[in-house]
Amino acid sequence: MVVDFRKNRSPQAPVTIDGEEVEVVGTYKYLGVQFDNKLDWSSNTSAVFKRGQSRLYFLRKLRTNNLSLNVDKTKEKVVDFRRTRRYHSPLHIDGSTVEIVRSTKFLGVHLAEDLTWSLNTSTITKKAQQRLYFLRRLRKAHPPPPILTTFYRGTIESILSSCSTAWFGNCTASDRKSLQRVVRTAEKIIGVSLPTITDRYTKRCIRKATSIVDDHTHPSHTLFTTHTPHTHSSPSSRLEKAQHNMYK
Predict the structure, then answer these.
(1) How would residue 240 be classed by pLDDT, with cut points 50, 70 and 90?
(2) Count of alpha carbons within 13 Å of 227, Cβ hemisphere only?
């Protein structure tokens, strides 16, 4: 996507990566927000309006089938990156006001209104630190290190790396240090070296990307391009081949 505010716009040369030309688009969607090359948010507003209309259709279908939406359990989260934030009137459903929240929890992941992951990281770190108590209690029974490592992977590492492919890549340095601090504490308790959170995240990303490449029906399959590795011969083998051709 090219953003150009000049009065006399000149055609931009396409970007090529590994010999392939990158497609130039007018709009791009990231984290549910629609960006356009004019940066005027008109495309994002229309997209949000269409999604709102589809939700209204869903509510009408509920009423047609004698079903009701529990407004007390329904929450609204507003994402607004404007410099001067305006007041957002609350949403009303059947005369009841929907509560506006600053963050929400979805599939165990905390989503904040500013789309940062500090709240999610602090919650995960606090929960993992509480599990360290059980690891210390288990150590008092003097089990071998493999037993302690298995307990750590099942009760602590599973929390630290839960859905990490979605949020760890955009974490701040301080958030990553707080997560790694829990791993270092577990290493001191067990007495062996443990994989870092970054290593676990990288391994999961590679495994997920590999599964997408192998699955031709996956929606993101076209985003990956497999390249055949080039075969390079060593200098010694090239010298032997040249000598062989010379004296042939």
Answers:
(1) low
(2) 7
CA dihedral 236, 237, 239, 245 (to 10 degrees): 160
Task: Give the whole-number percent of the chain exceeding pLDDT 90.
Answer: 21
Phi and psi for 233 in degrees, rounded to 5?
-95, 150
What are 52-69's pLDDT values in tens digits? Answer: 777 767 667 766 766 677
Q: Which pLDDT belongs to residue 246?
A: 46
Cα-trace Rg, the chain: 27
Tokens found for residue 97: 């006001």
Closest of 228, 213, 225 to residue 20, by C-alpha: 225
Amino acid (1-letter code) at residue 61: K
The candidate with the shortest Cα–Cα distance to 139, out of 152, 126, 127, 128, is: 152
User: Whose CA is closest to 1, among 28, 20, 29, 19?
Assistant: 28
Q: Which residues contact 220 (CB under 8 A, 6 or more apart)?
A: 212
92 backbone dihedrals φ, ψ, rounded to 5°:
-115, 130
Residue type, 143: P
- What residue spans of 65-141 are helical by DSSP H? 118-139
CA proximity to 96, closest of 77, 75, 113: 75
pTM > 0.85: no
Mean pLDDT of 150-163: 90
* Beta pairing class for 75-77 and 99-101: parallel
**103 and 111 in contact (C-beta within 8 Å)?**
yes
Q: Could you tell me if residue 143 is left (phi over 0), alpha (psi between -120 and 50 degrees) or otherwise beta?
A: beta
